User: Fold these one by one.
Assistant:
Number 1:
Amino acid sequence: MYPAKKTVVDHLGNWTLITAAGLLPLFFLPVTQDFYDINKWLLLVLSVLMITGLWTARSLLTGSMHVAWNALSKSLGLLAAAALVNLLVASPNGVEAMMAPFGPITFIALFLMTLLGTTFFDEKSRGTLSWVLYSAVSLTGLIAIYQFFGLSKVAGLSGLPGLSYLADPLWTPVGTSVGLMIILAVTLPLLIGEAMHHKKSGVDTHMIAAVLMAIAILGGLILTAIQAFPLLISGMLPYWAAWQVLLESYKNLKQLFVGVGAQNFVTAFTLGRPAILNITPIWNTRYTLSSSLLFHIATVYGLIGVAGLGYFFVSLIKDKTTLLVRISKWVALASFLLLPPSFPALVVITIFLMVHGPQSVSHMAISKKPALSYGVGIAILVIMLGSSYGLWRVYGAELAFGSSLKALENRDGTGAYNAQIKAITLSPNIARYHIGYSQTNLGMANALAGTASSSATPDQVKKDRETATQLVQQAIREAKLAVNLAPRDILAWENIAAIYQALTGVAQGADTWTVAAYQQAMQLDPTNPVIRLRLGGAYIGQQMLDRAAGSYIAAIQLKPDYANAYYNLGFVYRQQKKYLAAAQALQEALKYVTPGSEGATQGQKELDDLRTLLTEKEKSVLDNPESAQNVQPEALPTPTPKKGVTEPLSPLQ
C-alpha cells in the first residue's frame, strides 16, 4: 500500500515521473550526433536523479523509507547488477559503456525508477500517468500518419534549414520505426481496455478519448508497418547470424559469463560475423545492436545478463490481471524476443509495467536511527552531485561534437576543429571524438596544401607548411589515442589505417603503418572483404604486387561477386604483364556491374585495350574458357554469381 499522507514532496515526485513519461516518446533534440536515444537517455537519468533526491528528502522528513520491492524492481535490479559487473570486468572504456543505450546507467535508472518512483503513486496519480503516456503515444501515431501522407513536404517544413529529416516518410520522434511500432502495439490493447472499462462505468468522455487515441495508434501502427516491415526484414541482422555471433563470443570463458561489454556489440559482430553474409544485400552493414533484446543482452552481458533478462521476462507475464493488459505484456515480450532492441520502447514498457504491475510498497522506520539516516542522505547527495557533474560533462561533449558535425556540413573546418577540441576536453575518453578530430585535422591539412599559392611570400609558405605539419601530427596522435581508448574497435583501426594511407609519401613510414593497421583490422573483422581490398591498395603503394594480388584474391574468396576486387586484381596483373589473367579478372568484374553504367563503360574500354595485348590463343581462352587446352593463365577464384548484386567500379582502394 502507499503512504497514507501525501506531502509536497510526494506531489513533486508524482509530477516528475509523469512529466518524464509524457515527454520521453516525443523528446528529441537535433543538436547532438544522435538526435534521439542520447537525449531520451539524458531525460531518463535526470528524472531519476530528481526522483532519488525527492525520495531521500521525504525519507529524512518523515523518518521512514518506502521502497517498491516487487518482481519488476527485483528483475531490473538484477539486470543493473549484471551491467555493473560487466562494467568492472569486461569494459575497457567505462565511460562509453555507461553511455550506451543499454548500458549500466540505463538499467540502474530503470531500477531506481521502479524501486523509488512507484512509492510516490496513489490510484489517482497512476491514472494521470497512464493518460499522459497514452496521449504522448497517440501523438506519435498521429505523426506517423502525417509523415505517411507526406504532409511535411506539402507544408514545406522538410525544406527548411535543419528540418530536412522531416522529408523521410518514416521519421518519428521515437527515433526508429521499430521502436515506434513496439510502443504503439503495446499501448493499443491498454487503450482498448480503458475504452471498455469507461463504457461499462458510464464515463463517456474518457471512453471517447480512449477510442480516438486507439484509432490514432492503430492508424500509425498500420501505416508504419506497411512501410517499415519490408525494410526491417531485409535490413535487420538475421537471427541465425546473431546466434553465430553469440556463440563465437561465448568461446571466450570470461565473455560467456559477463559478455563483451555494453559498448562492444559491434566488436562481437565483426569477430563472429558469418562469411555467408557477404552474398546478401547487407554484406557491408555493421550492426551496433543484435537481432533482438534477448540476443543483444546475451552478447554484451553474457549469462549473468541472460539471467537478469529472464527474470524480467517472468515479471512481464506472471501477474494475474485483465485479458487486454496480459495481451499488452505478451506483445512486449514478443518484441523483446523478435525485434531489434529499442531504448525508448524499453523505458515506455517499464513505465506501463509500473502502472499495471504489482503495487506493493514496503517501508522501514529510520527515525530512531538518525545517524544512519543522515549518513545515507549525505551519501546519496554526494552521489547525485557527482552524477550531475558527470552528466553535464558528458552531455556538453555531445553538444559540442554535434556542433562540429554541423560545422563540417557547412564547410566550416575551423568551427568543427574548435568544437571537437571542446568535446574532447569535456569527455576525453570517447574514441569517436578522437576519430572525428583526427579526420578534421587531416582534412584541414589537405585543404591548406590545396590552397597554397605560388605567389605567396616565402614566409607565408613556410608558415603554411608548419601548420600543415602540425595538423598531420595531430591527426596521427588523435588516431592513436582512439585506438588506445578502444583497442578492439574496428572503426578506430580502420581510421588510423586510412590516416596513414592518406599520408603515404608525406610522413615517413606511413606505408608500413598502413599495412600494419589494416592487418590488425583484419584480425578484428576477419570475414570483411573491404578490408582486404584496402589492404591490397596499401600493398600497391609499396609496389608489393604479389601481396596485393593475394589480398584481392582473399577478398574475392570472401565475396565472390565483388566487382571492385576483380577490377583491382586485373590492375595488378596488368602491372605484372599477365595480360590474360588481367583480362579474365576484368571480365569477371563486368559481370557484377550495372550494364550501361559509367563503371561498365570504363571497364569495357579497359578490357578492349587489354585484348590488343593478347595472342590469338589467349583471346580464344578469354572468349571460350572451356576450350583452353595448353594455356595456363594466372589462377582466379571461382566466382558464385548472384543475380541482381551489382556495384559500380571504383578507383583502386
Number 2:
Amino acid sequence: MIKIYRFFSSWMLTTLVVLTFAGNNQTKAQPINHVDPFIGTDYHGHTFPGAALPGGMVQLGPDTGIKGWDWCSGYHYSDNSIMGFSHLHRSGMGAADWGDILLMPTTGKLKISAGSKENPDEGYRSSFSHQNEKATPGFYAVNLNDYRIMVQLTVSERAGFHQYTFPKSDTSHILIDLGHGIGDRESCTDAHVQVVSDSEIEGCRFSTGFIKNQMVYFYAKFSKAFRSSGTWNQDEIKKGSKADSGTHIGAFIDYATSENETIRVKVGISYTSVEQARLNLEKEIPDWNFERVKKNAEARWGKALGKIKVETDQANSEKLTVFYTALYHSLLFPGTFSDVDGKYRGLDNKIHTAKGFTYRSDFSMWDTFRAQMPLLALIEPERTHDVINTMIAQYKQGGWLPTPQQFGNSYTNDMIGDHPVSIILDAYRKGIRSFDVEKAYEAERKNAMEAPPADHPSKGRVGLTDYMQFGYLPYNKIKESVSKTLEYAYNDWCMAQLANDLGKTSDYKYFIQRAESYKNLIDTTTGFARPKDSNGEWLNPFDPRLVGKGNNRHYTEGNAWQYTWFVPQDVQGLINLMGGKEKIISKLDSLFIMSSEIPETQLDVTGLIGQYAHGNEPSHHTIYLFNYAGAPWKTQELARKVMDELYTADPSGLCGNEDMGQMSAWYVLSAMGFYPVTPGQNTWIIGNPEFNKVIIYRGQGGEFTIEARNNSKENKYIRSVNLNGKPLNKFWFNHDAIKNGGKLIFEMDSKLNKNLNFENILP
C-alpha cells in the first residue's frame, strides 16, 4: 500500500513516500491521499488547485493570471507569481470568468495594483515556488516569497477561511481587491465596500463577462483588530475611508505583526445579499478553528471519494492518483448557489427560497451530459435530484430551461444542443424521480417546439424554425449547422423516450421521427456528416479536416472527422448509412491512423490520435462504436491507449480542457470498464477495465463490484465477461445491474479475442 505524506513548514514543502506492501501485493486506495489537484493545471487543462468542497459554492485559491486561453481558471502551472486568492473559480472551463473577491496579504509599501507577470514588482504580486506549494482536497497552501508570508486556505460550503502567517513587520497589510476578475471579457460594472468595524468588512461586486449579470456579496471577519484601514478608488488611496464604490475599488487593512504571527480571515459568500453572506459565515464557520474546518472539508471529500474503492498492483499505483484526481474533478460541480437558509437569486433576478432541494448552478451541459452527469446519477443521485429541481425552478422563473449551459443567474447559451432533456431522461430511467416529471416534460417540450424569443436569443434552441422546416440546419442560415443538427436529433430522441415513458404516444411518434434528422446531413458518397444549404446542395469544396472560423464554421470545436460519429441514439442507422459494419470499421480505423494535421488550428481540438480528438467532448464516445460494428477488441485497445497515454499524474496530465468534470468523468467510467454512449438509454457499454478491482458503494442499493482477473498492462484484451454469475453475451448491460448491486467479472488476456461471444444485440 502506498501512502503519500506532505509536510508543510513555514518556508518549505517536502514529500515523503512510504511504501507498505500488503501480502497479496495489492494497493488499496485511501482515496483522499491519492488526489493531486495540480493535475490539469498545466497545458490546456484549465483546472485550479484551490480549496473546494464537492459541489460547494466557494472555490478559494490562487490567481496567477487573468488573461488568455490557458488562464480560464485564473491559474497556470507555468507561472511563478501570484496576485492573490479569490473565492470563485471554475474547473476546466473553456471561457474565463469569476475570480471574485480577491484577498492578498503583503508587507512593505502599500500597493493597490496587482502589477503584471512580466513586472511583478510594480504591484502587490508575489513570486512563489511550486516546491513551497501544497494542494489537497479542501486545502491549499503556499509561501509568498516576496513577503515571507505563509498562506493556508480551506473552505466550508459557502465560506472561505484564510490563515496568514506573517513575518515581523510594522507594515503588514491585507488587501481586498473588488476590481479583480478573471477573463479577457470580464469586467467589474459596479462594486461597494464598507469597513464595518475594526475587524469587519463587507461589500459586493457586480460584473459582466461570460456571465452577463454576476452579483457576488461578501462579509469578511478578521481575527485581529485593524491598526488602521482605508479604501482605494482607481489609483487614489484613501487612508481612513470607511466606504467606497466604483468599478476599480478595494479596501486595505494595516497591521504591525510579530515574527510568525498568524492572522485569520473568514469570508462568507452569497449571491443574494451581504446579510446572507454574513449568515452563511456565521452558520458554517462560527469560531476561529482553522484545523476543524480543514478536517471537515477532508471528511466531506473522504465520504464523496469513498463511494468508489479501487485496488490495483504496485506497478499500476500511479493510476490511483490519476483515478482519484479524476473523480475529485468530476465531483466539483454543479455547485451550490443557494444560501444556508435556501435563499437564492433566480433567473428572474428575484430572491426565492429552495424547499426540498439545494439550488445549483454551473451546468456546462454540452460537456457534462455525456459522462459527468451520468456519473453523478450513479454515485451522487441526491445532487442529480438538486440539479433537476433547479432546472424546473429555472423554467418557472425564467420561462425556459437552460439549453447547453447555465451559470450564475444568467442564461448563457454559449454552446449548442438542448441537453437538459438528456440529463432528465437519464436520471428518470435510473430511478431518480423525486421531481415533477410532468413539469419537466412541459419545459423540455417548450424548448423543443418554440423558437427562442427575438429579444432573448440565449433561450431555447438556436435555429429551431429552420430545423423544423428543413429537417436540418442549413449552413447558409446557421453557423455550426452540422453539429447543431446532430445534437438536436439526439435531443429529439431523448424527448421521444421520455414521452413514451410517460404514455404520450403522439409526442413519441413525432419526436422519434424528428430524431432521424441526422440522416439529412450524412453524405453517403463521402461517408461524412456534411454541411448542406437551404436548397439542399452540399457544401463544395469540402474538406472533412477543416474546422472553420466565424460564420464559416460548420462544426462546433471540431471537424467532420470528429463529429460524423455523433449519432448515439441510432448507431445501427449510422452503420447502415456508412455501408455496413466492415465499411464503418474501416472508416473508424482511418480516423485513428490518419495524419493529425488540421488546416486551421482550434484550441479545443487537442489530444489527437489521428483525427480523433480526445481533448474535446464530441469524440468521447467514438472509441466505443467498434463494439456496435463487431470489433470489440479495437474498443479495448484504444480505450486502454487513451487511459495510459493521455491521462497522467502530473500537472500536464490532461490532454485537453477539463470542462467542468467531463474529461475526468470519461476516465473514471472507462477505467471501471464501461461508458454511457447514449445517456438516457439506461445502458453501459463494455470497454476495458484499468484496475484489478473496483467497488461502487450504492448505499441502500448495495455494492457493485468490478473485477478484472489476470489484468496487467500486457493483458489488455477481454477473454470473457461474467455478470452476476452468468456469461454476458452482449457488449452492454442495463443500469439495473449496478442499481441493485452485483458483480461484473472480466477475464483478461494478452491475446486479442476476435471470437469474444458478444452477440449482435444492440442496446
Number 3:
Amino acid sequence: MKQFVKKKVSFVMVMIMAVITVISMSLPMAVFAQGGGYTLTLKNEGSTPHTFQIYQIFSGDLDESKTLSNIQWGTGIKEASKETLGTAAEKAQTLTGESEAKEFAKTIQEHLNEDNKLEVRVEKNDSTTVANLNAGYYLIKDKEGSQTQTPPNSAYTSYILKVVGNTTAKTKLDVPELVKKVQENSKKDIEGNGWQDAADYNIDEVIPYKLTGTLPSNYAEYETYFYEFNDIMSAGLTFDKMSVKVTVDGTTLTAGQGYSPVMRKYDQDYSLIVHSDTNSFQVRFENLKAIQSVMITSTSQIVVEYKCRLNGNAVIAGNGNPNTAYLVYSNNPNQSGGGDHGKTPEDKNVVFTYKVVVNKKDEENHSLQGAQFELRKIVNDQDEGTKIDTVTVTEGTKFNFKGLDAGKYKLIETVTPSGYNTIQPIIFTIEATYDEESDDPQLTSLTGQTEGEIVFIRKTEEREDSLSTDVINKKGIQLPETGGMGRYLIYTLGTIFVLTALGYTVYKRNRKHTEK
C-alpha cells in the first residue's frame, strides 16, 4: 500500500514539474540554451510588437568594467565563415566607434548561423528578459518581414550590438507622423488661420487642405528613404491637381515624372500621381536623400498643400464629406536601397454643407403655388449680399436651397403668387457646431436663427439633414367702390331723355304729314 502511495505521489510530482515547465516557457523570461549566468532585457519602446532575433557574435571573458577579453567567434557565426572573417580578436579591434559597429552589423549578416539563434517576441511598450546567457558580444535585430504596413506605425529597429552582462537593450527606432488639416473659411484671416479637422462650405466653393509630414529621429541611418503622401477624397470633393504645392522647411520643391535611366537619378524632387477612378492622389518621393535643392534632416517638415472644390455630389449635413490621408515610408534602416515600408494611421478631415427648405403657404396653412425666391449670402454685414441661387417652383410649393455654408443669408421673394402680398426679405443665419479637433469629426448641432417671425426646424428627409421653415403670403385686400348707384341713375335718366326726345321728333314729323 505504501509503495502504491509513493508511486502515486511520484506521478503527481512529475505532472506538477511538467506543468511548471510549460508555464515557465510561456513567461516573459526566455531561456537561451547556453548555461551562463547573464541576462539580456529587451525593451520595446515602439508602437507595434517586435520579434527579435539574438545572435552571439563574440564570446570571451567579461570583467566588472564590461571589458571582453580572450575574444573568440560566438555561436551565432557560421563555422564556415570563421576562417573567412579572420580571427575574432582582430575583427573586434576594428570596432573603435559607433559608425564602425553599425557597418560591421550590416556586413556580418551573411555569416550569421540561423541554426543557433534565439527568437523573442516583445509586445509594444513591454519588455522581456533572456536568461542564462554566456558572456559575449550579441547582435539583436528584428525578424525579417515582421514589420509591415499592417498594423500602422511599424518600423524595424536599427541593429543593436551589446556586450552582455546583465544588460538592457532598447529598441532603436522611430516613425514619421502625418497631420492633415482643412481650412475653415470663416477663420482663415484670424490667428491660427483656421486649420482644423472639420469645416463647412457652400457647394462650388474651393477648400484648402494641408498635409504635414515629419521624419524619424534615425533618418540619418538610412542610405535611401522612400516617402509618399496618400490622400483619398469622397465623391463630393473634386481635386485640383494644379493647386498642389510641396515644401520642405519652407522651400518649394518641383514635381517630375520619376526616375531617369539615362541620368540615373530622379529628374525632379517628387512625382504627383492622380487616380481618377478612386478619387485619390499620391505625392511620391522615391528617395528623399537624393534631393539637392534643400538640406533634409530628421527635424525637417514636409508639407503638401492643395485645393478641392465641393461639388454637387456632396453629402448634405449628416456625416459630411470626409477626406483621409496617410504616409508610406521606409522603415528599415538596416537595408540598403528602398527596403521595407511602413504606414502611418489615417488622418481624417470632414467638410460639412447644409440645406434650407422653404414651404410656401397661405394664411390658412394651405400650400401656395406661383412664387419665386432668390437667396443671397451676407458677408461682413453687407446690405445686399452675394447671390447664391434662384429657385422657381411653377407647380410645387417646396423650395430647396442645397449646399449652404454656415453664415448669414437674405431670402427675397422675387415673384409673388397672384392676389397675394410680397413678403419682406427674410434675414436668417445658419449656425452649426462640429468637432474641430477629432480623429472622427462629427456634426453636433444645426440650427437656423432669424430676425423675423419664421422658425427653422431641423429635419431628416431622404437621408439629408436640413433646416425647414414655412413662409406665409397674405392675401391682398379687395377695396369697395364709391358712387355706384348715382352713376347707374345718370345712365338710366340719360337713356330716358334720349328716347323721349327721339319720340317727340318722330311725333312732330308725323303730325305735319297729316295736316298736309
Number 4:
Amino acid sequence: MDLSAVRRVEAITRNLEPPPPPTFTTMTDVDIFCGTYNVNGKREKALALSWWLMQGWTTSAPHLFVITLQEMIDLSAANVVKETIADTRSKQAAEDWAAELRRAFGYVAAARPGCFDGATPQLIAEEHMVGIALFVFAWDETVLSSVEDLCSARIPTGAVGGRLGNKGACAVRFRLRASTLCFVGAHLSAHRGDVAGRNADYAAVVGKDCFSRFAPWRGDVDGDKAEMTASDGPPNPCRCDFGVLDHDVVVFAGDLNYRVDASLADREVQFLVRGDLPKLVALDQLNVERSAGRIFAHGFAEAPLTFLPTYKYATGTTQYDYEVADADGATNKKTRCPAWCDRVLWRAEPTGPRPADGAFAESVAASTYDRADDRLKVSDHRAVFALLTARLRDVDADARDAAGRDAAAAARGEAPRAPRADEQRGGFEVLTRPASLSAPPPASLAPGTRRTSLSAPALPSPAPARHAGVDLDPPMLWLRAGVDAVSTITNRSREPVALALARAPPWARLALPLSLAPGASATLKAHAALDAAAKLALAEHGGLLAATATV
C-alpha cells in the first residue's frame, strides 16, 4: 500500500472516532494566607498583627486570609466547663479578636496601598469553641461572589470523654467556584509524653461527621424541622452527613502540640536549637508519627521546618523560657523544651469524578512557611503562617447546561431548544437520563386524606398532570451534586393531601412533609448525593445527571 493510501485510511479512521466531549472546566489559582497563633489568654494589638498578615506576599494580597487562634481565654477547669455550656466569654473574645483583625487589615492597606484593590477584607466565616477560634476573611469580589454552601462546626475532644471544648477543633467549609474547601483550626492534647492523646484527637476530628447537607433550613413544617439523617444518605464520601476529609482541599492548622521526641534530654534539645536544627527536625514528634503512618495519613503535606521552634518563650521577650533567669540568677522553674507546636498542613484529594488523566484535579502548593515577625510576642508561642496557592476548578455552568440540553435533544432527534423560564429560575445544573421520583403514599392514611405523588420525567418530556390543587414553586428542582435545591409545596385544595416518596434514583435525597393541611405550604428540600456507582455513571455520561420534580 502506498503512502497516500495509508494517509487516506488514517483520515477515514479519524473521522470515525467520536469527537472529544466539550470542556467547560478551567483551573483557577486562589492564594490563601493561613495562620495559627496560640495567644495564651493575651490580646495582640492590631499593629503587631498587621506585620504577621503582611508576611509572605508583597503587592497583591492573598484572596483568602484564614486565621486560627488557641487559648483566647484562660483554660481553667471552671472556665472550660462554663464556656462549653454557656459560650459567653468565648463569644465575646472571638468578637474582640475579629475586630482587632479588621483593624490590622486597615494597617495592611495603609502600608501597602492598592493591595486590596480598593476593597476591604470581609469576615465571611467564623467559628469558636471555648478557647479556639477560626476566622476566614476575603476581599476579592470574584471570590466573594463564588462562595456557596458555607457552614461551620465545633468538634470537641477535651475532658469528660471528649465532651469539653478545651481541646478539639473548629472547622469551616464552603464551595469556591466548583471545588470544596475545608479549613480546620485545632488545639490538640498537650505535654511532651502524650503523643497517643494527640493522635487520638486528630483521629476524632477527621473521623467525625461534623457537617450535614440536610441541616435545618428556614421554613418549618407545622413547627417541626424536616431533616434527613445519616442513615438516609449514601456512604462516604457523598453521605448526607460528612466530615473534614470529604472535601477537595483541606487545610489543617493550629497548636497541634507535638514536641521533640521524649528520648532526647532537655539539655540536648536546647543545644540543638542553636547548633543543629535539621537533627532536631528529624526528631519532631509530628514528623516521626507521620512517617510511621500513625497521624495525618490521608495525603496531608507540610512544607519543611526551616524556622526555629515556636514554643516555649518567656512572655514578652524573644528568648525561650529556659534562657531567662529569675532575680536570683536561677533558671525559670517551669520550663518547657522548645518545640514546633504550631503547624499548618494541607491536602488536595478531589472527591468527585475527574478525567482519568488527572486533568482538572485540585492541587495545593506552598510558597512560604514561616513563623511570625518577632513583634508578636505577648504569648509564650510564636505565630506561624503558610502562604498557599490552591488550584481550583471553575466550571462554565451556562455553557455546560446548554450543551447538555442540546445533547439530550439530539439524542431524541429533536432540534436544540432554549431553556424554559422555570428552568432558568430553578437554577439548572445537570441533565441526563430519565429518573423517577414517583411515590405511592403510606399504607395507612388519616381519614379524609387524599393521595398524591412526586414524579420526575425525562426532560424535556411533557410534565405529568399535576395533582389538582397542589403546586410547586418553582415547579422544577434542578439538583446539583453537593448543593441543596428548595421548592415550596402548597395545598390549594380544601382537603388534606399526603405526600410520600418511593423508587427514587440512588443519587436523590428528598425531605418533605408527610401531609399538607388545606391551604398550607411547606418546604421540599432535594439533594443529589452520589455514591461510587453513581459517580461512575456520571463520568460515563459526560458529567451530566439530573431529575425534575413536579407534583
